[in-house]
Amino acid sequence: MPLTAPTLMEVTRWRRKLHARPDISGEEHETAREVVDFLSPTRPDRVITGLGGTGVAVIYQGTEPGPTVAIRAELDALPIFETGTPPWRSTVAGKGHMCGHDGHMAILAAVGHALGNRRPRRGRAVLLFQPAEETGAGAAAMIGDGQFADARPDVTLSLHNMPGLPFGHVWLKEGTANCASQGLRIVLTGRTAHASLPHTGLSPAPAIADLVPALTALGGGSLETGDLTLATVTHVRIGEPTFGIAPGEGEIRVTLRTQTDAAMAAVRAAAEDCARAAAQRDGLTVLFEEHDVFRAAVNHPQAVALLRNALDAEGVPHSEGEAMRASEDFGRFADISASAMFFLGAGETHPAPHSPDYDFPDDLIPIGARIFLRAIHDLLD
């Protein structure tokens, strides 16, 4: 079913409305209501709300039995102050759609309007709007919600816009599409002392000074050889910002990144071993906290073949590309379905995701929608 110009205009206006009123991870209540309201005229056969907090599933049922294919987009924006100046710039200080999730939702909305006019012949098409992608918490919460059983897919597809890639060109590959990552907070505790008597305390400063290069040295490999490992120290703190107290506590925050989940387990263990050794040497206690845990997103051959056929049928140029160092909270869908994500070029000079002047290119909406619609109908018609 081709997308009409009036539909695309309506979807574009809606995308800009979402852009102006962003919700960050865990707070997507208004955005979720917008999704439900905007798609209600398409007469979906079922709408499930509150999935994993604020997630939404919009279901279009065929007339014959068949598989379920889900298309997934993200609801959340970022805690970034927007510096761009479009008329639809964020009206919420310190929050903005600087990653393009508003555009991803608009693509699904265009798909929903087409499905409202023409259901698949068999099976079900499900539009999934996932919360909390940016923190890595949303997919697990959504899939773990008891309601999700009623929308569980056999195939799950997704996309991400990709500045730096020629406009409208697609990268798609089997295997790892996005690296795994997690944040590790290491807290080292000793004993404070008067600054004139530092020898009477236990300072974490020597341990932290040694750990910064030791953790960084855990990195190695490359995307090309499939064994990239990164350990990026993102924050260091020792004691209090004062001159009279020798520090007795400090912390390091490090982001670990690998191409596989198995490699993540290994580098996490190595990072903890480094910290324990430094703590034991200096008589400190050590505590570990994990944050923002992202599984590797690994594309299934069946789902990749479905997307490649759709790209060819729609005349969208594509190549294999490479795995993304950045993480994406899509990997968990591989536990329940054949899943794949592709990257849709936003232009070689377009501002990068998470840049304060980023804005999703509206002309990508019909391209992304056409690809998904072709894949849906190839599988279900």
Characterize the structure shown.
This protein is an alpha/beta fold and 381 residues long. The protein contains eight helices and 16 strands. It folds into two domains: 5-177 and 296-380, Aminopeptidase (3-Layer(aba) Sandwich), CATH 3.40.630; 180-294, Alpha-Beta Plaits. It has helices at residues 5-20, 29-39, 101-117, 138-144, 205-216, 261-282, 301-314, 364-380; strands at residues 46-51, 55-61, 64-74, 122-130, 155-163, 170-171, 175-178, 180-189, 193-194, 229-238, 245-246, 249-258, 285-294, 297-299, 318-319, 338-347. Strand 1 and strand 2 form a beta hairpin. Helix 1 (5-20) packs antiparallel against helix 3 (101-117), helix 3 (101-117) packs across helix 8 (364-380) and helix 5 runs antiparallel to helix 6. The chain is elongated and about 80 Å long. Keywords: Hydrolase, Manganese, Metal-binding.
